[in-house]
Amino acid sequence: AQKETPxxxxxxxxxxxxxxxxxxxxLVYSDGKYHLFYQYNPFGNQWGHMSWGHATSTDLxxxxxxxxxxxxxxxxxxxxxxxxxxxxxxDKQNSSGFFTKGQTNGLVAIYTAFVHRNLAPxxxxxxxxxxxxxxxxxxxxxxxPVLDLKSKDxxxxxxxxxxxxxxxxxxxxxxxxxxxxxxxxxxxxSWKFMSRWGRAGNTARVWxxxxxxxxxxxxxxxxxxVLFISSGNPQELYPGMQYFVGxxxxxxxxxxxxxxxxxxxxxxxxxxxxxxxxNAPNDRKILLGWVNDWEYANDIPxxxxxxxxxSVPRELSLKRTAKGFExxxxxxxxxxxxxxxxxxxxxxxxxxxYEVPFRGNIFDLELTLKPQQAKVFxxxxxxxxxxxxxxxxxxxxQTLSLDRTHSGNVSFNPKFASVEKVRVxxxxxxxxxxxxxxxxxxxxxAQNGEKxxxxxxxxxxxxxxxxxxxxxxESVINLLKINSW
Length: 485
Ligand code: FRU
Description:
The protein is mostly beta strands. It has two domains: about 20-335, Tachylectin-2, Chain A (5 Propeller); about 340-485, Jelly Rolls. About 0% of the residues lie in helices and about 50% in strands. The protein is built from no helices and 34 strands. A hairpin with a 2-residue loop joins strand 1 and strand 2. The protein is globular. The protein starts with 18 loop residues before the first strand and ends with a strand. About 45% of the residues are buried. The model has no long low-confidence stretch (mean pLDDT about 95). Bound molecules: beta-D-fructofuranose. Beta-D-fructofuranose binds near residues 84 and 155. Beta-D-fructofuranose binds next to strand 1, strand 6, strand 10 and strand 14.
């Protein structure tokens, strides 16, 4: 296989062994393992021949690659079906009848078939595949499709078990109408329309990959329903994700507010198609997103071998605020396993520039900083003589930005070089950051996960220097801790 130079393949983020991936699919926990399926091109490193790849993990970080789960297929009428995004459930009660009597671990995948002739779209409709052997082998349901509106823009079904009414609920996107449609079923085979909701928040692009889940509010017994939609970015016209908080009564979703102002999940350019695991233990809600952006996804310079990676799995919760509920995201605790402290310091004054005695491009960093008199401070990552990725905090604006304009290779696509910015108020005069770096991925969690910012970077140099600078006055590093593996 062609080896990429430099090596951009992340170490603790999921990538396919080779070829292209986009969305994570069929995230489900079953029999002690997390299953990850993913949009996959078995034949190349750009989008095409969409199928589902498969991997499993017991810790959400180390993945065991398995053989292709759902390949594209030809239909009797000469059309072809690609396997687009969707979800998977554990059919514990064998409600579908696909499994042997008494079997409690049958897996059912609910996916969109993109039916086309030579890529000319015909329909997008919803279909089933099932596996009685823990996802090793799969059968397509003979009576597919199970839900068909004869629409060209109807995709990405997320099915979950709605316990209060002992039924399956499907959230699926009518992408071109910017609406989520809700259906119910008792056997996964016949689906009844319940309601639709949408055309709120950001409607600049098609709505994709909806996910409706119930999330706990921190420090309370309360839970709220959160609808995730992949569409819209604070950087106008780029893809991204937004969320809506509200109530779900088993039939329809009612948001708490009108959402004239959208709420975004991530403020970088490279977090999309995020969905959560079904059936995760202890009612955990774990979100996994694709770290890429359709505006340049097919061009990213990861070399000939592979293209596409997923974020670190993020544990979700909500925080009550004066305005409603705010989404909190935090790397799953499993990420800490096996980490070693590479450097740490406390209560250090920074007057101009502080070179951190650490070099590397794979780390998990925590920084608590108090700007005091400083007007701007910067954390420079993946630095060499002429490259750097800069996290900048502007004290008067109370904004955090991630600047990748000098991060290395930014010329492969005119839409790539960019500075992303998000408002992050100081708390007790402090900014708390957790920064995950993994060769070509930067994920930033600000103020304990209240805001996140995810971006790809492609440094050409390997020095991996790190520094912190303060301008306009002195800042204090309350804590800096860098872990590596
Ligand atoms: C989102 C998406 C989905 C679709 C899939 C096709 O990235 O466009 O809506 O199912 O990718 O690969």
